[in-house]
Write a structure and sequence with these properties.
By secondary structure, this protein is α/β, with parallel strands linked by helices. The protein has eleven helices and nine strands. It has helices at about 15-30, 60-70, 90-100, 115-120, 135-150, 170-180, 210-215, 235-245, 250, 275, 285-300; strands spanning about 45-50, 75-80, 105-110, 125-130, 160, 185-190, 205, 220, 260. Bound molecules: phosphoric acid mono(formamide)ester. Phosphoric acid mono(formamide)ester binds near residues 57, 58, 139, 263 and 264.
Length: about 300
């Protein structure tokens, strides 16, 4: 992480202490969203650019709300309506935006490493809002915060992450955060969706859904990312659902108080049955709500507030 500008590019290099500090900071921001006037002056006079060159609903809107609730000015740029469609490169786009003196640029991009390129090239703090199949650090933080709030701890919990592990930046950031905080993280998916050597990230791996879900405290389902696949990796949605989906019958293998999570968007009826997505174990909308507090914490931290570096 930069010593001059604070960035948040990935969770893998962060310590458990640094992650816990960000979660604690996020928790301290949570009550602002419950007030009638949902605004504090923490980032007044600062400018946050939201450069989303890949589709997003939750991440983009919650970063915008987070910045606005901290009183920052925001500029929102989407790929389809920017000069990227005329062929302008990412670096040229970002350099032109940087010429307008933003303090923080939040980037979502389809290529792994794109935020690192900006962090090396620009005089602004860079926050990774999801880069290809690499990392989605604020999702990892909001997932950890949501588990911590529901279970009052993370250490010792069995967390099963199931689905398209190979293409999932959510899985990578989740493994990084949760394993450092002491969870027993399992990943599970078809062999074609399991990256070789995934255990080196700090998790256990299985192709067997029952092994992953049995006695789990948390079952986190992942979206199948067809847009990142260059070939068919499973025969049909129906077969995938039968072997790797989560319905109430499979969920019954987990602990009785198990939580169900999903980063969204959900392929309903494929990775997650509607009765589970909308059932009493689901904390999916709590994840979304916590996204605002986590992103407030990250923006505040990158703007120079809070202690230590992330
Ligand atoms: N979880 C997540 O990244 O959702 P969006 O793609 O809608 O931002």
């Amino acid at each position: 992480m930069s010593t001059q500008r604070r960035h948040l590019l990935e969770l893998a290099p962060l310590s458990a202490h640094e992650i816990t500090e960000l979660l604690d900071l996020a928790e301290s921001f949570q009550d602002i969203s419950q007030r009638r006037i949902k605004k504090v002056p923490a980032l007044r006079g600062m400018t946050v650019v939201l450069l989303f060159l890949e589709a997003s609903t939750r991440t983009r809107t919650s970063f915008e709300l987070a910045a606005k609730r901290l009183s920052a000015d925001t500029l929102s740029i989407a790929g389809g309506t920017s000069s990227v469609v005329k062929g302008e490169t990412l670096l040229d786009t970002a350099r032109n935006l940087a010429a307008m003196s933003p303090d923080i640029i939040v980037l979502r991009h389809k290529h792994s490493g794109a935020p690192h390129l900006l962090a090396r090239s620009l005089d602004a703090s860079i926050v990774n809002a999801g880069d290809g199949g690499h990392e989605h650090p604020t999702q990892g933080l909001l997932d950890a915060l949501t588990i911590r709030q529901h279970k009052k701890r993370i250490a010792g919990l069995k967390v099963a992450i199931i689905g398209d592990i190979a293409h999932s930046r959510v899985a990578r950031s989740g493994i990084a955060a949760l394993s450092k905080l002491g969870a027993d993280v399992w990943v599970c998916g078809p062999p074609t969706m399991m990256p070789p050597g995934v255990e080196s990230l700090g998790c256990r791996a299985t192709f067997d859904r029952t092994t992953a879900v049995r006695n789990a405290d948390v079952v986190m389902m992942l979206r199948i990312q067809k847009e990142r696949m260059t070939e068919e990796l499973f025969p049909s949605d129906r077969e995938y659902s039968q072997r790797y989906g989560l319905d109430s019958g499979v969920l019954a293998l987990a602990r009785p108080d198990a939580l169900v999570m999903h980063p969204g968007p959900i392929n309903r009826g494929v990775e997650l049955a509607p009765e589970v997505a909308d059932g009493p174990a689901s904390i999916i909308l709590d994840q979304v709500a916590n996204g605002i507090a986590v992103r407030m914490a990250v923006l505040y931290h990158c703007a120079g507030g809070g202690g230590g570096e992330a």
